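Page 37, continued from 36.
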């Protein structure tokens, strides 16, 4: 019976995986990858529950409860960092559960998945940090060649240099430092581990937030501005934001015959000849968007002001605050922009425009630094607790050695 059910599930999954792209071709939004992932997850969950019921046990309820907890918090408010932590807790408990289930069933599919996971984890343990450092140096060179030598473009290089120095000092510290001093040095790796966990949670929720599927009932699409070339020309990075808004504008127009207004948001910088929103409007006009469907917000200087001032324009245009709105920005900036929308009391989620791969590591690091600074008090307290704990251990070790 078990083999028959496995074959049936495999056939059902393969049929669905083949049909999914065909089905999405008939939709206005033809993106099929998100639905393909959902289909695989659904089939796998059904299969795991079947294996569990064959054993007359219900341990699958533990990871299921964590998944439901994540979904509850996520759909209640998507723009919260704790959602990344909850999802990663679900992954850790879920992987532990699958390992436990594998021991009990010796299921071939679970064995294959465990083998792949084991190889990946082994590689991460053996060469993970060294591979990361090599990648960061490579990425830093590419970014500097293509984007220039500004401080914002040097983050991957600075991180690579810092990690290299840490590895060298960590290698020799145990040989040249007394034990109590090595404990003091432990403040640094523990702080690195802490910020690595925070970064991983941030990256997780940033990726999940990319899967927003807004309904075609929007009244406004806010396009968040960025700097202009020579103070007057829309750069490719900003152009992709506008293109993403235009793509949604056309899709909703086709689906409902009721296009949203595109609200270009961005003021005039000190080194710019015109407001960013005016240049963005001109760009959209050249792409064939009717002028009556374009609004401009020309006073904002940062993302928070983008959201606040755009909200005022939308309320005035709509005649109230019960409108539907989304915003577009580059995918790496999407989650932090969502946080600013929440701070502005704007009920709007975002859709992200694709960014060149080489630019993403540096961009996500920049976003992470900004997120950390938004909650710097919390991080300072935790790092302070780490430091105090290690100082106490080092002090105890010092007096213990002195005594004996």
């Amino acid at each position: 019976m078990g083999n028959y059910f496995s074959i049936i599930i495999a056939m059902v999954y393969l049929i669905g995986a083949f049909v999914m792209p065909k089905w999405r071709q008939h939709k206005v939004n033809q993106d099929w990858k998100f639905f393909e992932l959902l289909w695989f997850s659904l089939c796998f969950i059904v299969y795991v529950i079947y294996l569990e019921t064959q054993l007359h046990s219900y341990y699958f309820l533990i990871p299921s409860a964590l998944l439901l907890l994540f979904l509850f918090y996520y759909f209640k408010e998507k723009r919260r960092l704790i959602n990344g932590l909850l999802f990663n807790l679900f992954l850790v408990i879920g992987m532990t559960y699958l390992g436990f289930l594998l021991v009990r069933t010796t299921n071939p599919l679970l064995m294959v998945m465990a083998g792949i996971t084991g190889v990946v984890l082994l590689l991460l343990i053996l060469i993970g940090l060294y591979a990361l450092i090599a990648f960061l140096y490579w990425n830093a060179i590419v970014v500097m060649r293509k984007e220039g030598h500004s401080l914002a473009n040097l983050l991957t290089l600075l991180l690579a240099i810092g990690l290299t120095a840490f590895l060298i000092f960590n290698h020799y510290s145990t040989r040249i430092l007394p034990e109590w001093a090595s404990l003091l040095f432990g403040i640094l790796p523990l702080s690195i581990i802490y910020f690595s966990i925070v970064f991983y949670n941030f990256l997780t929720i940033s990726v999940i937030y990319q899967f927003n599927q807004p309904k075609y009932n929007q009244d406004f699409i806010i396009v968040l501005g960025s700097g202009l070339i020579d103070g007057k020309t829309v750069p490719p990075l900003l152009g992709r934001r506008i293109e993403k808004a235009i793509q949604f504008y056309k899709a909703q127009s086709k689906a409902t015959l009721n296009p949203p207004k595109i609200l270009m948001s961005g003021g005039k910088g000190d080194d710019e000849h015109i407001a960013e929103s005016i240049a963005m409007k001109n760009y959209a006009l050249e792409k064939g968007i009717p002028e009556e469907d374009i609004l401009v917000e020309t006073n904002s200087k940062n993302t928070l002001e983008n959201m606040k001032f755009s909200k005022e324009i939308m309320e005035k245009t709509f005649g109230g605050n019960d409108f539907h709105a989304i915003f577009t920005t580059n995918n790496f900036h999407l989650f932090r922009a969502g946080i600013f929308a929440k701070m502005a009391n704007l009920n709007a989620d975002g859709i992200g425009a694709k960014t060149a791969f080489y630019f993403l590591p540096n961009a996500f690091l920049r976003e992470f630094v900004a997120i950390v600074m938004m909650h710097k008090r919390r991080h300072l307290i935790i790092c302070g607790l780490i430091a105090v704990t290690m100082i106490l251990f080092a002090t105890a070790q010092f007096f213990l050695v002195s005594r004996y």
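Residues 108-147 form the longest helix (40 residues). Flag for discussion at group meeting. The radius of gyration is 25 Å.
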